[in-house]
């Protein structure tokens, strides 16, 4: 199947993938984190090949403790068993920071091109961070702030378990980013320019996703082909469903089944831009599961809110540029990468615009100065929330 159509408009277009190329891998490599200590040249070589030529990898033997993973896998799905009123109290419309509960009910959206009939649910959260926005500050500083959590008595240990997981993955993400930098022939710190020094203006985000399975002839729900807007995405597949697929460079869809003890890592559009497409974002999709619902937890690393993606030029060595050129030649991609206008804007402004366009209710309640700009005719009758934020 050679379906290049993407349904994530804010993420832009993906690098073309077509049937004429020879880069048709059929398995996703497992990169062993321990090699970064025992045989670093091999680790960096394998990582570089996976990043440049595949764009998806499993990371095994990583630094997040097994008991932290086991606890979050057990705890995270419980959120969706809360009574509807408890979940609704945590609805994203109550968060200036776009955290909280999000559900997409196909009967109540304009998402007519989606072939599903059941409700998809998501719980969005971030680290324990205070909002420093004060009247007169740029509005995008409101993106930063504490998540909405269910009361402890309703779900004892939920907040602590999810935050412990989040903190471990965030720590892993900074270390892994330095290894990615080294694998591209740069200094370990070369990508740090996109992250502020003390990480106080960063807000990586995490989502627990529930995909309803198909039962009794009722359709389940997946996610159509898209690329992530993140820097890097670290995915934990909680259930055993084999419904995640990645598109290889020949345009074929390759399954990414769950593998115990690993994260699935894929490249986002932000990383594609700052590397000027040395590392292109990878199209992937989730097929509608059959049977019980599928759960996964995605961690999206992000750049500083006051960083401009077009603001820094990375000095790649010739061997990396040659690998990129060889790949692009096989793909039939020509021409230099060009930044778009918004790549010269602050990342916080770009992210806020995207979120305000997807969440009119949050815009109206928490961003009254910006609301008329995006909704000159008032709040739309049906929520616009849907595909754009449901990744
Ligand atoms: Fe995704």
Automatic annotation (TrEMBL):
Transmembrane segments: none annotated. Pfam families: 2OG-FeII_Oxy, DIOX_N. Residues 1-23 are annotated as: Disordered. This is Fe2OG dioxygenase domain-containing protein. Belongs to the iron/ascorbate-dependent oxidoreductase family. It comes from Marasmius crinis-equi. Keywords: Iron, Metal-binding, Oxidoreductase. InterPro entries: DIOX_N (IPR026992), IPNS-like_FE2OG_OXY (IPR044861), IPNS-like_sf (IPR027443), Oxoglu/Fe-dep_dioxygenase_dom (IPR005123). Signal peptide: none annotated. Residues 200-303 form the Fe2OG dioxygenase domain.
């Amino acid at each position: 199947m050679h379906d290049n159509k993407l349904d994530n408009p804010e993420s832009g277009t993906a690098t073309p993938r077509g049937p004429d190329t020879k880069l048709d891998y059929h398995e996703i490599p497992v990169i062993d984190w321990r090699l970064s200590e025992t045989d670093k040249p091999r680790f960096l070589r394998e990582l570089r090949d996976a990043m440049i030529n595949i764009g998806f990898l499993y990371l095994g033997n990583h630094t997040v403790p097994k008991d932290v993973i086991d606890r979050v896998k057990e705890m995270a799905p419980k959120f969706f068993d809360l009574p509807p009123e408890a979940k609704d109290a945590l609805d994203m419309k109550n968060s200036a920071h776009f955290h909280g509960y999000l559900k997409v009910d196909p009967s109540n959206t304009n998402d007519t091109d989606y072939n599903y009939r059941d409700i998809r649910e998501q719980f969005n959260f971030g680290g324990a961070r205070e909002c420093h926005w004060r009247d007169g500050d740029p509005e995008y500083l409101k993106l930063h702030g504490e998540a909405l959590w269910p009361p402890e008595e309703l779900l004892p240990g939920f907040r602590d378990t999810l935050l412990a997981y989040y903190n471990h993955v965030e720590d892993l993400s900074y270390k892994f980013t330095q290894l990615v930098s080294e694998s591209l022939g740069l200094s370990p710190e070369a990508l740090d320019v996109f992250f502020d020094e003390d990480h106080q203006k960063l807000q990586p985000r995490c989502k627990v996703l529930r995909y309803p399975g198909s039962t009794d002839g009722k359709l389940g729900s997946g996610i159509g082909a898209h690329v992530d807007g993140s820097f890097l995405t670290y995915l934990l597949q909680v259930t055993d469903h084999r419904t995640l697929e990645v598109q290889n460079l020949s345009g074929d869809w390759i399954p990414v089944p769950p593998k115990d003890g690993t994260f699935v890592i894929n490249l986002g559009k932000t990383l594609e831009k700052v590397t000027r497409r040395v590392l292109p974002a990878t199209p992937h999709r989730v097929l509608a599961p059959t049977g019980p619902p599928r759960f996964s937890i995605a961690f999206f690393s992000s750049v500083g809110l006051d960083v401009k993606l077009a603001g820094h030029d990375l000095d790649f060595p010739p061997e990396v540029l040659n690998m990129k050129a060889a790949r692009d030649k096989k793909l039939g991609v020509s021409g230099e990468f060009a930044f778009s206008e918004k790549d010269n804007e602050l990342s916080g402004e770009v992210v806020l615009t995207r979120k305000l366009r997807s969440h009119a209710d949050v815009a109206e309640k928490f961003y009254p100065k910006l609301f008329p700009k995006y909704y000159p005719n008032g709040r739309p009758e049906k929520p616009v929330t849907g595909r754009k934020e449901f990744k």
